[in-house]
Amino acid sequence: MRSQTEGGGTVLPVMIGGKRVRTIDTHAHCLFQETLDLLGPEQAKAVLPSTKGVEEHFLGKEGHPSGKGGAEQRLRAMDAMGIDMQVLSINPTWYRTDRETAQKIVAINNRNLSQLCTQYPDRFRAFASLSMQFPDLAVQQLEDAVRNKGLVGAAVGASMLGESFADPKYDAVWAKAEELGATIFIHPQSTPELAKRFVGNGWLSNTIGNPLDTTIALSHFIFEGTLDKYPRLKILSAHGGGFLGSYGDRSDHACFVSPWNCDPKVGLKKRPTEYLKQMYFDALVFTPQALGHLVAQVGASQVVLGTDSPIPWELHPVDHVLITPMADAERVGILGGNAARLMGMSA
Questions:
Q1: What is the mean pLDDT of residues 212-232?
Q2: Residue 21 phi/psi, 5° resolution?
């Protein structure tokens, strides 16, 4: 049914039912030293995650000064994981910078991402970086990235330093994304308001903070009516969309139980959980039971492959899908077909 490494993990080419399947990882990170240099040494150091795989983030020509990283090393790692293509993104570390610095960082990121996609057209696509703290600038950057640089959308945080992206001040960005058919990839940056609660063992700022941040972001998009204003907006979120995939049904009961906490002027057009079926979620939920539940909640057509590469959260992402009970057509979709459709790529 599929090719195997000695350790049992699927490698390229991936086959299902005797047919070659193209696998697309929609959640893969990278960094460029040029942009870190613009942040200054202290802030640049804080950007690097305290995880395995840090050096492998660097995809410039020379990679990391340690000798690790670089595009060719990433491609070998992708082959070993059974991944044909990665959609690259850069976690936004520039939301606190001034307009000029943010503009320079985003320009470098988007130029380098575009060059990687041009150099390796069968292996890389990318989400643009945006200066979301300046929405007017973000609109210009998004249009340039999609129309001129060939990027498939943009990666944003789950909030603007704690301020919801459902605030009307960001509407112009979502309107432009809808107009361009661009995918917005939401990747959390923990939940900074709860930093004191996360102190202690277990890396709770990430373990709990990241999925919580995404849960709050998606809930605001739903309950503030953003998805009614922009019904064709394509939103993809990391880590299975946070906790909504497991407990989204509670949202359907909230305004019945407490109408005083729901604004009648918003007037949602459908039940909150129905909006989940128009968004997209990566499959980074670790177990077949969790993936099966996510598929049951949002539909197999809304789930795509995601690894968080090069951070080693999921070393055998293809096997995770293959061992989850579902139809082969659904597996093919999650492994790559859904992402290709979402981002306008050939199947």
A1: 98
A2: -115, 130
- Rounded to 5 degrees, φ, ψ at 84 are -75, -45
Type of residue numbered 302? Q
- Predicted confidence (pLDDT) at residue 18 exceeds the cutoff of 90: yes
CA distance 329 to 334: 9
Q: To which residue do tokens 């989400």 refer?
A: 127
Rounded CA gap, 60 and 166, in Å?
34
Sheet of 124-128, strands arranged across: 24-29, 85-89, 124-128, 153-156, 183-186, 234-237, 280-282, 303-304
Q: How far apart are CA 141 and CA 137, in angstroms?
A: 6
Both tokens of residue 284? 């980074």
Side chain identity at residue 141, one-letter code: Q
Q: How far apart are CA 276 and CA 126, in angstroms?
A: 24
Model pLDDT for residues 120-152, shown as the tens digit of each residue: 999 999 999 999 999 999 999 999 999 999 999
CA-CA distances (angstroms) from residue 117 to 111, 114, 128, 339? 10, 5, 12, 16
Tell me the C-alpha to C-alpha distance, in Å, between residue 128 and each of 76, 100, 117, 186.
24, 18, 12, 12
User: What pLDDT, in 10s, does the model give residues 299-339?
Assistant: 999 999 999 999 999 999 999 999 999 999 999 999 999 99
Of residues 196 and 49, more confidently modeled: 196
Residue 310 carries which side chain, given as an amino acid letter?
P
Q: Can you tell me the distance from the alpha carbon of 188 to that of 241, in angstroms, rounded to the nearest whole number?
A: 10
Q: Where are the alpha helices (DSSP H) in the chain?
A: 33-39, 41-47, 71-81, 99-119, 135-147, 171-180, 195-198, 204-207, 209-223, 226-229, 244-247, 249-257, 272-276, 288-298, 317-322, 328-332, 338-342
